[in-house]
Structures are given as C-alpha cells and as structure tokens.
C-alpha cells in the first residue's frame, strides 16, 4: 500500500470551453480544473503533497523544508499542508525580500511559515544548509523537493491519469470523441513525469505536451524521462522512457521565468473574458499563451479535442509586481 494522505478535492472537474474554442477557430477545447484541488486556493502541488506528506509522517518528521521563488505556488501549498497536518514549515525563497507582502507570500505568512532568503544560484546550497541546521536543532526536518518533483511527488499525477480515464469513460466526455491532446505548464518536471507514466499505466493514447515555463527543450525532456522512469521503478514497474518520447515546446520562455509578456497577458484576458477562468502570470498564463499560438498556427487539427490541464497558481495574480501589467489601458 502506497502511503497517501487524501485531502485534495478530487476528482477535479473537466469543463468545455466553447466560447474560447469559437473565438480561436481551432480545436474543441476542454479544461481540467486542478486549480480546484482545494488546498489554499488549489493547484497541482496538492496532488503531489498527498504523497509527500504521507512519506514525511512515516519518517516521523516534524518540519517541512522546501524552496521556491517569492511567489511560489509550491511553497504556498506546502506551507498550507504543513499547517493542516501539524508540521512546522521553513521556506527557502530566492531573491530579495520585498517591502510589500502580497500574493502567495502573504499566504505563506498566514500559514505560519518561516523564511530563509537567498540568491537563485545559492538556492540548493542554502536549502541543504537550512535542512542541516534544522536537523541539528532537533526539528526532525523533511526535505520537500523543488516543485514537489521526485518519485514520491510524481505519483500524484500518475494517479491523476487514472482519474482522467474514469472521466473519459463517463458521460461528461462521451460527446467529445477522443481526447487527442493534454497541454499544460511544465517546469520542475514532476507533473509531466507523472502524466506520461500514468498514460502508459492506464491506457491514455493521446499526446501529452508540456509547454516549458523556464527550461530548454532538451533539459526538460531529459529531466522528465529520467523522473518518469525512476517513478515507475518506485512503483514496482520496469518502464523506461527516452527523452525523445517526452513532448516539450520551449518556444515561449525566452523572456525568462516569471516575466509577463504580451502573450501571457493576452492569454489571461482571453480565458477570463470568454470563459470566466483565471490563469496565473507565470505558469498557466505561459502555457495558455503557447497553446493559443499553436492553435493559430494550425498545430492542432480543427476536429481534435485538446484538454488544457489547469495547474493553478491564480493567487499570483494578486502579487504587487503583476497588478499594473495585467490591467489594460
């Protein structure tokens, strides 16, 4: 029996996006609402944390330690999970401590997290140092990997595919025909690794396309293939993935991580004004911008069905750094 704490609101719904499909003149569009997983405004990390926190409990840990950017969705959900299950939480955040607390950082404070600030190139060293110090202090730390992306966290999206397959077989998707594509934001690799392994295990035959938020194509392909293979082994399955099997598009991240461009801004407004759906400026905004551009270029066939897997993060809309850029003049 694989240790798991079931606190996510599952299954997350699948909804059609008819108005967006019409305005783009492209394929039939659906959205999988992992922004509604329930923990601290939801998001994809909640699925991973069900397995990671269970593992922490089996090790009798008392303190969760993880790292991310100032507006990290992963850190926000980790801090919330720590509060819910009685762990202390230490977050190693990259960059300068802002004068104004907003967005995810505000929520981190509300959940009682403690903070360590560092530069991005020192993040891994500072994370290890923070872990070692917590251990010396008797805090019984548990290291939650960046993005929750290890063989334990990736299991969340292995079983998300099992959930998806049950929905495909149910009435909610019978009228759409085959589900040809899954499109989503990919960065630390755990979500994509879980999806490609889950597809293999549970029989999903469509294509899984990660829109890279911040990594070159080859880097992300290598990372996902390795993690998917290792996750399979951790589940007692001998399945090897090659980088060539991992579909990644890295054409939309040249501006850099967390930099809002006109493409993300347009995608956020399109989803909001045609479907009443909120995206975030960093992950889903960039993935949606990529999907929209690919639709306009004819990458997807008009008779195909494309599911946009919404990984959450909408609380970053309320970060001070993005607010003025999101308002149209």
The side-by-side strand order for the widest beta sheet comes to 1-2-10-7-8-9
User: Which segments are poorly predicted (pLDDT under 50) over 5 or more consecutive residues?
Assistant: none
- Could you name the CATH topology of the largest domain? Rossmann fold
Radius of gyration of CA atoms, rounded to a whole number:
19 Å
The assigned structural class equals alpha/beta
* Count of discrete alpha- or pi-helical segments spanning 4 or more residues: 12
Q: Secondary-structure element order, as H and E?
A: EHEHEHEHEHEHHEHEHEHHEH
CATH architect. name of the largest domain: 3-Layer(aba) Sandwich
Describe this entry's structure for a reader:
The chain has 329 residues and is an alpha/beta fold. It folds into 2 domains: 14-43 and 150-326, Rossmann fold, CATH 3.40.50; 45-148, Rossmann fold, CATH 3.40.50.1100. 43% of the residues lie in helices and 16% in strands. The protein contains 12 helices and 10 strands. It has helices at residues 18-24, 45-58, 73-85, 103-110, 123-136, 155-169, 171-174, 190-202, 217-234, 262-275, 284-296, 320-326; strands spanning 14-16, 28-33, 63-69, 88-94, 114-118, 141-143, 181-186, 207-212, 247-249, 305-310. Strands 1-2-10-7-8-9 form a 6-stranded mixed β-sheet, with helices on both faces. It has a 4-stranded parallel β-sheet with strand order 5-4-3-6, sandwiched between helices. Helix 8 links the parallel strand 7 (181-186) and strand 8 (207-212). Helix 1 (18-24) crosses helix 10 and helix 2 (45-58) packs across helix 3 (73-85). It is globular. The mean pLDDT is 95.
